[in-house]
Amino acid sequence: NGSLAGAFSGLLVTPLDVIKTKQQMIQNQNRSIIQTVRYIQADEGLKGFFRGATMRMGYLFFGGFAFFGIYEKTKKSLQTLH
Length: 82
Fold this sequence. Notes:
The structure is a single chain. The protein is mainly alpha-helical and 82 residues long. It has three helices and no strands. Helix 1 (2-25) packs across helix 2 and helix 1 (2-25) crosses helix 3 (53-81). The chain is elongated, with a radius of gyration of 19 Å. The protein starts with a helix and ends with a helix. The model has no long low-confidence stretch (mean pLDDT 90).
């Protein structure tokens, strides 16, 4: 379930990351965050805020799956040593 939570949280924060990245790309134009949000909305619409969400969700899902799986296996192995 941790991997699902990671994927879902990745989806939720993707718009913030898109805005941050766009701000970094256009920083010489002195746009405010609000102007950047309006730019993304006008240029790409709502889907523009979720650019890359699938990849982010994928690596967080599989990374969480691997992390928690390895953690549980290690924990179980260490418990049998005692």
